[in-house]
Protein backbone atom coordinates (compact mmCIF):
# COMPACT_ATOMS: atom_id res chain seq x y z
CA UNK A 1 0.00 0.00 0.00
CA UNK A 2 1.39 3.35 -1.02
CA UNK A 3 1.41 6.18 1.47
CA UNK A 4 -0.29 9.43 0.63
CA UNK A 5 -0.44 11.34 3.89
CA UNK A 6 3.08 12.76 3.63
CA UNK A 7 2.14 14.72 0.53
CA UNK A 8 -1.12 15.93 2.03
CA UNK A 9 0.31 17.03 5.36
CA UNK A 10 3.42 18.43 3.71
CA UNK A 11 1.30 20.61 1.46
CA UNK A 12 -0.78 21.91 4.39
CA UNK A 13 2.25 22.47 6.64
CA UNK A 14 4.25 24.21 3.90
CA UNK A 15 1.38 26.52 3.03
CA UNK A 16 0.74 27.42 6.67
CA UNK A 17 4.40 27.89 7.61
CA UNK A 18 5.36 30.05 4.64
CA UNK A 19 1.87 31.56 4.17
CA UNK A 20 2.28 31.32 0.43
CA UNK A 21 1.32 28.80 -2.29
CA UNK A 22 5.02 28.19 -2.96
CA UNK A 23 5.32 26.89 0.60
CA UNK A 24 2.56 24.40 -0.16
CA UNK A 25 4.46 23.23 -3.24
CA UNK A 26 7.69 22.82 -1.24
CA UNK A 27 5.78 20.90 1.46
CA UNK A 28 4.22 18.72 -1.25
CA UNK A 29 7.67 17.84 -2.60
CA UNK A 30 9.01 17.00 0.86
CA UNK A 31 5.89 14.89 1.53
CA UNK A 32 6.39 13.07 -1.77
CA UNK A 33 9.96 12.20 -0.81
CA UNK A 34 8.75 11.04 2.60
CA UNK A 35 6.07 8.81 1.06
CA UNK A 36 8.58 7.20 -1.27
CA UNK A 37 11.15 6.51 1.48
CA UNK A 38 13.78 8.91 0.18
CA UNK A 39 14.83 9.75 3.74
CA UNK A 40 15.22 6.17 4.98
CA UNK A 41 18.35 4.09 4.88
CA UNK A 42 18.65 1.75 1.86
CA UNK A 43 19.95 -1.06 4.13
CA UNK A 44 16.68 -1.07 6.01
CA UNK A 45 14.63 -2.32 3.08
CA UNK A 46 17.13 -4.59 1.40
CA UNK A 47 17.59 -8.10 2.82
CA UNK A 48 21.16 -9.05 3.49
CA UNK A 49 22.72 -10.86 0.54
CA UNK A 50 25.55 -12.14 2.69
CA UNK A 51 25.05 -15.80 3.46
CA UNK A 52 27.27 -17.95 5.61
CA UNK A 53 28.15 -20.86 3.37
CA UNK A 54 31.12 -23.13 3.70
CA UNK A 55 33.80 -22.94 1.03
CA UNK A 56 33.89 -25.71 -1.60
CA UNK A 57 37.12 -27.45 -0.54
CA UNK A 58 37.10 -29.94 2.33
CA UNK A 59 40.10 -28.42 4.13
CA UNK A 60 38.52 -25.00 3.96
CA UNK A 61 35.27 -26.45 5.33
CA UNK A 62 37.03 -27.76 8.40
CA UNK A 63 38.66 -24.37 8.99
CA UNK A 64 35.29 -22.70 8.47
CA UNK A 65 33.51 -25.01 10.89
CA UNK A 66 36.05 -24.50 13.66
CA UNK A 67 36.09 -20.73 13.09
CA UNK A 68 32.33 -20.52 13.49
CA UNK A 69 32.57 -22.16 16.89
CA UNK A 70 35.68 -20.15 17.78
CA UNK A 71 37.89 -23.22 18.25
CA UNK A 72 40.97 -24.84 16.77
CA UNK A 73 41.21 -28.32 15.28
CA UNK A 74 42.96 -29.53 18.43
CA UNK A 75 39.89 -28.85 20.58
CA UNK A 76 38.52 -31.74 22.59
CA UNK A 77 35.02 -33.11 22.20
CA UNK A 78 33.97 -31.46 25.47
CA UNK A 79 35.24 -28.07 24.32
CA UNK A 80 33.35 -28.44 21.05
CA UNK A 81 30.14 -29.35 22.85
CA UNK A 82 30.53 -26.45 25.30
CA UNK A 83 31.19 -23.94 22.53
CA UNK A 84 28.23 -25.26 20.53
CA UNK A 85 25.85 -25.07 23.51
CA UNK A 86 27.02 -21.58 24.40
CA UNK A 87 26.58 -20.23 20.87
CA UNK A 88 23.30 -21.96 20.12
CA UNK A 89 21.80 -20.75 23.40
CA UNK A 90 22.89 -17.23 22.51
CA UNK A 91 21.59 -17.22 18.91
CA UNK A 92 18.59 -19.54 19.09
CA UNK A 93 15.58 -17.91 17.35
CA UNK A 94 13.20 -18.91 20.15
CA UNK A 95 15.02 -16.58 22.54
CA UNK A 96 14.12 -13.60 20.36
CA UNK A 97 10.38 -14.15 20.02
CA UNK A 98 9.42 -10.52 20.75
CA UNK A 99 12.35 -8.94 18.91
CA UNK A 100 12.33 -7.15 15.59
CA UNK A 101 11.95 -9.34 12.47
CA UNK A 102 15.45 -8.37 11.30
CA UNK A 103 16.96 -9.67 14.53
CA UNK A 104 14.93 -12.86 14.33
CA UNK A 105 16.12 -13.49 10.77
CA UNK A 106 19.72 -12.80 11.79
CA UNK A 107 19.44 -15.20 14.73
CA UNK A 108 17.92 -17.86 12.50
CA UNK A 109 20.76 -17.54 9.97
CA UNK A 110 23.39 -17.60 12.69
CA UNK A 111 21.86 -20.66 14.37
CA UNK A 112 21.77 -22.48 11.01
CA UNK A 113 25.44 -21.62 10.52
CA UNK A 114 26.31 -22.87 14.03
CA UNK A 115 24.39 -26.12 13.49
CA UNK A 116 26.05 -26.68 10.11
CA UNK A 117 29.50 -26.12 11.61
CA UNK A 118 28.80 -28.46 14.53
CA UNK A 119 27.48 -31.17 12.19
CA UNK A 120 30.52 -30.76 9.95
CA UNK A 121 32.92 -31.17 12.88
CA UNK A 122 31.02 -34.22 14.14
CA UNK A 123 31.13 -35.93 10.74
CA UNK A 124 34.84 -35.17 10.34
CA UNK A 125 35.59 -36.59 13.78
CA UNK A 126 33.60 -39.77 13.01
CA UNK A 127 35.57 -40.25 9.78
CA UNK A 128 38.88 -40.01 11.63
CA UNK A 129 37.92 -42.77 14.09
UniProtKB/TrEMBL annotation:
Gene3D superfamilies: DnaJ domain. Residues 64-129 form the J domain. It comes from the Bacteria. SMART domains: DnaJ. Keywords: Chaperone, Membrane, Transmembrane, Transmembrane helix. It comes from Thermomonas hydrothermalis. This is DnaJ domain-containing protein. The lineage of its organism: Bacteria, Pseudomonadati, Pseudomonadota, Gammaproteobacteria, Lysobacterales. The chain crosses the membrane at residues 12-34. PROSITE patterns: DNAJ_2. Residues 40-61 are annotated as: Disordered. Pfam families: DnaJ.
Amino acid sequence: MRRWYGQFFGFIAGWLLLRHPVGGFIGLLIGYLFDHDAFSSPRRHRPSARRAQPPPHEDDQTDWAYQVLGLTEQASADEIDRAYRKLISQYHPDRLVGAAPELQALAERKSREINAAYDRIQTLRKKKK
